[in-house]
């Protein structure tokens, strides 16, 4: 592949799809953190722990993913992607391996929650940042593929883990997965590298791109956080994903509440994983053509409609799966398109740290959504209020997002004249 550098010199970078392969591999391994629930029942049976106690490991890990993403993004912007990816892969695999020696809740929280969550936060920042630099022409699609790998991880390795647990127990399953994830993340880290300075895809004309991704648009975080648009995006991201995590966190108990069998509830997790991964990829691709903000607005409106319908038609298994897939699709869309939006609006030079600050909105949602969902159910004894509150939060996110403005919209319009 031949590319034109800013100084007019031709460079020959490697195949730019190899970092995509590496990023998908990395994120599929790290995405098994979403599937940590497969270990809950075996641990509860062996140690007599409650679901509330074991579920804390997910809350701890998700919060740390958001926090470490910011720190790892800062390091990556200065030291490059590979060291950060290696650290992430090593810590995530180590967390799974050490979790196999669990004898107490504290150990479980420290290994599966703190260590694995930290590793996931370090590793997750790399594919998104690298992909946004290699593919300014297909940024939405490629970032969608990257984060889609994370969403698909639990759908791929969750059933494998369940089968391994039935055959050899949860301890050996943790150890086997740790080896698999170590191999995947190290290969992924090897393939993840930034493009040469000044890289532009052959034949790409930024002035004809729907997304405003152009050189010279790099914005430092200190300047970004002083803009209204950043905080508007942050608030909309938090509201929209809080609505999603509120529903998602209650999926299995909600399915049982709706009168479905344990098998139906278990398959709902697979439907959700497919929906989330599809939203990340397809909406990412769509946003390359219709615009980031337009895509987000439509998906928030769809989400606000689907959530009440999911509650109302919960007893019909076909509609239950269909509407559940739509809710997850809309949730996955946000995790993909906001990442592309950050790169479009604020450039790719500091994208690791800049998007990390925006991703903190999802970190807050990951804590707030499950808390609100559980509290509403305890207070009312049913899920009706939770679903309608979630729909209201999606509407609030939609209204907030109309205040966001693409800072490069005028430049793009002028370039097309």
What does this structure look like?
With 417 residues, the chain is mainly alpha-helical. It folds into two domains: 18-194, Growth Hormone, Chain: A, CATH 1.20.1250.20; 220-409, Up-down Bundle (Growth Hormone, Chain: A), CATH 1.20.1250. The protein is 76% helix and 1% strand. It has helices spanning 18-30, 40-47, 51-79, 81-99, 105-134, 139-168, 170-191, 221-224, 228-248, 251-257, 262-290, 292-312, 317-346, 351-380, 384-401, 409-416, and strands spanning 3-4, 10-11. The chain has a two-stranded antiparallel sheet. Helix 9 (228-248) packs antiparallel against helix 13 and helix 11 packs parallel to helix 13. The protein starts with a strand and ends with a helix.
Query: What is the helix tally?
Result: 16
| Count of folded domains | 2
Indicate the radius of gyration in whole angstroms: 21 Å
How would you sum up the major sheet? 2 strands, antiparallel
CATH homologous superfamily caption of the largest domain: MFS general substrate transporter like domains
């Amino acid at each position: 592949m031949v590319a034109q550098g800013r100084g007019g010199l031709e460079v020959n970078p490697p195949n730019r799809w190899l970092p995509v392969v590496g990023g998908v591999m990395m994120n599929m391994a790290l995405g098994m953190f979403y599937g940590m629930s497969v270990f809950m029942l075996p641990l509860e049976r062996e140690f007599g722990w409650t679901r509330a106690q074991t579920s804390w490991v997910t809350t701890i890990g998700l919060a740390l993913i958001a926090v470490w993403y910011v720190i790892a993004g800062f390091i990556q912007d200065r030291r490059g992607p590979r060291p950060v990816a290696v650290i992430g892969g090593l810590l995530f695999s180590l967390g799974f391996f050490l979790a196999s020696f669990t004898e107490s809740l504290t150990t479980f929280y420290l290994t599966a929650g703190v260590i694995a969550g930290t590793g996931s936060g370090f590793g997750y920042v790399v594919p998104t940042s690298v992909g946004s630099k290699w593919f300014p022409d297909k940024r939405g699609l490629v970032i969608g593929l990257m984060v889609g790998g994370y969403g698909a991880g639990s759908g791929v390795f969750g059933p494998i883990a369940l089968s391994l647990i039935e055959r050899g127990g949860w301890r050996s399953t943790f150890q086997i997965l740790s080896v698999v994830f170590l191999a995947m993340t190290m290969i992924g880290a090897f393939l993840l590298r930034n493009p040469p300075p000044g890289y532009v895809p052959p034949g790409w004309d930024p002035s004809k791109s729907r997304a405003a991704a152009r050189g010279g648009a790099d914005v430092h975080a200190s300047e970004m956080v002083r803009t209204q648009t950043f905080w508007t995006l942050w608030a909309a991201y938090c509201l929209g994903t809080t609505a999603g995590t509120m529903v998602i966190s209650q999926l299995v108990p909600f399915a049982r509440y709706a009168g479905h069998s344990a098998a139906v509830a278990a398959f709902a997790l697979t439907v959700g994983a497919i929906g989330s991964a599809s939203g990340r990829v397809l909406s990412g691709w769509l946003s390359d053509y219709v615009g980031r903000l337009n895509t987000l607005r439509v998906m928030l409106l769809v989400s606000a409609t689907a959530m009440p319908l999911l509650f109302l038609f919960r007893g019909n298994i076909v509609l239950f799966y269909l509407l559940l897939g739509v809710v997850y699709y809309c949730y996955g869309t946000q995790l993909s398109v906001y990442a592309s939006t950050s790169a479009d609006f604020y450039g790719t030079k500091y994208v690791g740290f800049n998007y990390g600050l925006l991703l903190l909105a999802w970190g807050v949602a990951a804590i707030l959504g499950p808390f609100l969902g559980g509290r509403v159910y305890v207070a009312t004894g049913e899920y009706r209020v939770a679903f309608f509150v979630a729909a209201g939060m999606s509407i609030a996110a939609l209204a907030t997002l109309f205040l966001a403005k693409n800072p490069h919209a005028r430049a793009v319009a002028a370039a097309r004249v």
